[in-house]
Amino acid sequence: MTRVTRDFGDTMQKDAVPAVSSDVAFASSRFPNYKIGANNQIVDGKDDLKVMSMKEAVARETALLLEQQKRLSVRDLASKFERGLAAAAKLSEEARLREAASLEKHVLLKKLRDALESLRGRVAGRNKDDVEEAIAMVEALAVQLTQREGELIQEKSEVKKLADFLKQASEDAKKLVDEERAFARAEIESARASVQRVEEALKEHERMSRASGKQDLDELMKEVQEARRIKMLHQPSKVMDMEHELRALRVQLAEKTKRSLLLQKELARSRRGELNSSQLYELEGTEILGSYLEINPCSDDAPELSKCSIQWYRVSSEGGKKEVISGATKSIYAPEPFDVGRILQAEIIHNGQQITLTTTGAIDPAAGLGSYVEALVRRHDVEFNVVVTQMNGVNQPSESIHVLHVGKMRMKLRKGKTTNAKEYYSTSMQLCGVRGGGNAAAQALFWQAKKGVSFVLAFESERDRNAAIMLARRFAFDCNIMLAGPDDRTPLGN
């Protein structure tokens, strides 16, 4: 009987197991440490931490790109898609290497199984059981490798889809970048053309300005030469003589005007059949705006005017109905702008006897007053220096200077920083020339700012007084207000 020793495995011939072919390349330097678990399941013995695969990294990067797409610029978006495309290419290369490694593993397992099969026929006993267990492990590894190959094929398909998507997105991003660049180039060209047009316009304007300036300079030189010629022709002594001559002519013209008015009065008296002996009163004064008319007795039999009742009227030049001038009950009346172009009458009543005095013609306008008023209308606010002679019917002894503002919406009277009256144009406001007041009536006006507040104001000249009345009535008319004169009960000067 043959005795079997315990070191049987150690005395086996080395050539019993065929050598592995040298053309097989292993993925690592050592064989994997596999263990057989329950139900003959192969369990990896390594406890290493889980590392994120390339597929998961690319998926995460793609998700971040999609979330930030609206916030990224076109250039950054193109750069991101290009990096994603490179990562997809890298993933595809890794899958190809894994496929090659899987093929090598299949070849290795097949050769290992063939070697174990040949070894199982040569051994017996316990060693045979170990060989069969090794063959079962190799078959389990082959099954798991087949499953892994299926997962790799599916993963390869997904990677291919992702690579195609990233490639298309990269191409779209490049197309969008090209469109934006083309649009930017067009905008730049348009801006350059606009700048060029502006430069050309500026050059043309500068050229025209130079030409116009040269033309103006030539015209100015011609005017200066003409002025010098006129100065040489007219010596200062000759100009002075001409001024004196014009002044003398004006004086003669004024005297002839007065003489003409007297002749017209005499002619009117003769036409009415009135004799000088029977005429008790007559009108004295120039019948023009800016002067005053006065009733004077021309006979010793004329009653005193203080004992007579006087009323002034204005009548249209066509002989229409006469209109009562409210408050004009004194012997002196200064025509106001409303009287221009109308005939004035004065009725004197004494002991039931009525005497009527009439101007020889309509009241003439003041020379230059219209243009003066038109120049003042263009201002927003016009000021006149005045003196308050009466306030609420009471004489004011003070002769301090006040300022009357005639504005487009209101009138204001002030002294320094103190305001005496400030009222908007209204139906309760009244404005007219002073009725009476002696020979200063032509320079004074009556102003009732509102009920219970009235002033008599004296101006520096007749022109300022008439201009103030015309301005106030015009501005009030623009505000749909008609400034009327006072009623007969209002005191309007002495």
TrEMBL record:
Keywords: Coiled coil. GO terms for biological process: actin filament organization; regulation of stomatal movement. Residues 54-96 form the Stomatal closure-related actin-binding protein actin-binding domain. Residues 281-378 form the Stomatal closure-related actin-binding protein Ig domain. One of its GO terms (molecular function) is actin binding. Residues 100-267 form the Stomatal closure-related actin-binding protein coiled-coil domain. InterPro entries: SCAB (IPR039640), SCAB-ABD (IPR032012), SCAB-Ig (IPR032015), SCAB-PH (IPR041144), SCAB_CC (IPR032009). Residues 381-488 form the Stomatal closure-related actin-binding protein PH domain. Pfam families: SCAB-ABD, SCAB-Ig, SCAB-PH, SCAB_CC. Residues 181-259 form a coiled coil. This is Stomatal closure- actin-binding protein 1.
